Amino acid sequence: MRKLKILLLLVLVCRVRITAIPAGTASQGDRLQVISQYIATSWDTLTRSTTRCDSVVDPKRKEPSVLYLPADYAVSAPLLGMQTQCRVVVKSLPFVIHGPGEVGAQNISPPGLLFLENEYVVPGGRFNEMYGWDSYFIVLGLLRDHRIELAKGMVQNFFFEIDHYGAILNANRTYYLTRSQPPFLSSMVMAIYQAEKAAGRSG
Description:
The protein is mainly α. About 45% of the residues lie in helices and about 5% in strands. The chain is built from seven helices and five strands, in the order ααβαβαβββααα. The strands form two sheets. Strands 3-2-4 form a three-stranded parallel β-sheet, with helices on one face. Strands 1-5 form a two-stranded antiparallel sheet. Helix 4 links the parallel strand 2 and strand 3. Helix 5 runs antiparallel to helix 6. The longest helix has 18 residues. The two termini are about 40 Å apart.
């Protein structure tokens, strides 16, 4: 239901942008250009990073937001600097996680955002998490719009989740450490390979 609402909202906004062009003055090409421009700018609007204050701070919480790093991940100076810069708490998970369900959500308090190495696109403006299911469709859209590096970074984030959180998570929040979603990882890898091949790139 949430995905349907987001899709309908996107269609409505596109319709508003298109109908804003005075009748009789816009060709079909002009209207398509408006849509393409809206989509292109929306990728950047919906891009998040766990090294940016605006992505880590949770406006829904009164207490300081927490960014959790994998227990086996080296804490860098820039990440520690976020504690002052963003007024968030940066801490490591209590132990290394090898698979889903090894740690219950109630064992990590307070809940927080799980670190990912690369930027990612969220399914809607109020989200700061990279969702497993939604990301499949987002990656396809990014590749269609020639945003290969951003799509590639999202796929690398899924491998990061497997390596450090034991599974591809529903989303990168501590309370999703027991939940996974089928994001068609192999399909995304193949789609990126095909996009790079078409663009004359490899690797």
